[in-house]
Specification:
This protein has one domain (8-271): 3-Layer(aba) Sandwich (Rossmann fold), CATH 3.40.50.720. Helices cover 49% and strands 15% of the residues. The protein has nine helices and nine strands. It has helices at residues 17-28, 40-50, 67-81, 104-131, 153-172, 208-218, 223-236, 245-256, 261-271; strands at 8-11, 32-37, 57-61, 86-89, 95-96, 135-140, 178-185, 197-198, 240-243. The strands form two sheets. A seven-stranded parallel β-sheet has the order 3-2-1-4-6-7-9, sandwiched between helices. Strands 5-8 form a two-stranded parallel ribbon. The relative contact order is 0.13.
C-alpha cells in the first residue's frame, strides 16, 4: 500500500503504546481512523492527539474478547466511513506466572484478548476488506511467538497462535489485493508489563513493580519506532515484521539453535 491518503485504518488497543503511535503515524499520512480500546478515556485521548492531523476519526470503548461487540463493530465502522482498508489487531495483555501458578481464568482472560481478539478482528472485517480496492491486515504477535519463555505459557500460547493463524491467512490471500503482515515486537517501551497479571517472572522475580521496572530498562524500542516499522511493512506488503534488534537476534537464535536456544535463554535470564 503506497498511498495512505483517505484510507480507513482500524486499530484496536489504540489507547496507548504501539496502538497510539500507529494512530498518530497513520493520521499524519492522511488516514481516516477507527480507534478502539477497552479504556474509553485512553482512546479518547489518542483521538484528541490525532485531531492535529485529521478530524475524520471515530473512537470507541471496545472489548476485543467480546464476540458480539466485535461482530457488530465492522458495521459501525462501515456506516461511518463506507468501508475499511487497514485492520491492525493490536490489543494485548500479559500474564507472568508458571503453568502451575496460572489460573484457568487467567488463561481465558489472556487468550480472549490476545488470540480471540485477533481472530474476531480479522474474521469480521475480512468481508469488508474484500470489497476495498486495496487492503491490509496486521496482526501483532511477539518475539514470544517465536520462542518459548518460562512463566509466559499463556502469552506464548496466544502469540504462537497469532503467528500460525496469520501465516496461514497470508497464503490464502496471496493472490488477492489484501496484504497480510505478522508483527513480532521485541522489548517495546509500553505499559504492558505494568498492567500484567503477575505472580513470577522468567528469572524467578516475584516482585511485580521490580519486574516492570526491569522491563522498562531493558526495552530499547519506542512505540513511535515500532509504529514506523509496522507502517513500512504495510507499504512494502512485508509478511513478517521484526521490531527491534532484540527481535532480530531472537529470530536468528530460534532458527539456528531450535533445540538449544532454551539453554542460552536460561543463562541470560539468570543474569537478569
Amino acid at each position: 500500500m503506497k498511498n495512505f491518503e483517505g484510507r480507513v485504518a482500524v486499530i484496536t488497543g489504540a489507547g496507548s503504546g504501539i496502538g497510539r503511535a500507529l494512530a498518530l503515524n497513520l493520521a499524519q499520512k492522511g488516514c481516516r481512523l477507527a480507534l478502539s480500546d477497552i479504556r474509553a478515556e485512553s482512546v479518547a485521548e489518542t483521538a484528541k492527539l490525532c485531531e492535529t492531523y485529521t478530524r475524520d476519526i471515530m473512537h470507541d470503548a471496545l472489548d476485543v474478547a467480546d464476540k458480539k461487540a466485535m461482530q457488530a463493530y465492522p458495521e459501525k465502522v462501515v456506516q461511518k466511513f463506507g468501508g475499511a482498508n487497514i485492520v491492525i489487531n493490536n490489543a494485548g495483555v500479559a500474564v507472568a506466572a508458571t503453568v502451575e501458578e496460572t489460573s484457568i481464568e487467567d488463561y481465558e482472560w489472556l487468550m480472549g484478548i490476545n488470540w480471540w481478539g485477533v481472530l474476531y478482528g480479522t474474521k469480521f472485517f475480512l468481508p469488508h476488506l474484500r470489497k476495498a480496492d486495496e487492503a491490509h491486515i496486521v496482526n501483532i504477535s511477539s518475539v514470544f511467538g517465536i520462542i518459548g519463555v518460562p512463566t509466559q505459557s499463556a502469552y506464548n500460547a496466544a502469540k504462537f497462535a497469532v503467528r500460525g493463524f496469520t501465516e496461514s491467512l497470508r497464503q490464502e490471500l496471496e493472490d488477492t489485493h489484501i496484504g497480510v503482515s505478522c508483527v513480532h515486537p521485541g522489548g517495546i517501551k509500553t505499559n504492558i508489563a505494568a498492567y500484567a497479571r503477575y505472580k513470577s517472572g522468567p528469572n524467578g522475580d516475584t516482585n511485580h513493580a521490580s519486574a516492570a521496572e526491569k522491563f522498562a530498562k531493558l526495552a530499547r524500542t519506542t512505540p513511535d519506532e515500532a509504529a514506523a516499522t509496522i507502517v513500512k511493512g504495510i507499504e512494502k506488503k512485508t509478511p513478517r515484521v521484526l521490531i527491534g534488534a532484540d527481535a532480530v537476534a531472537i529470530d536468528v537464535m530460534a532458527r539456528t539453535m531450535p533445540e538449544s536456544y532454551t539453554t542460552v535463554l536460561g543463562q541470560l535470564l539468570k543474569l537478569g
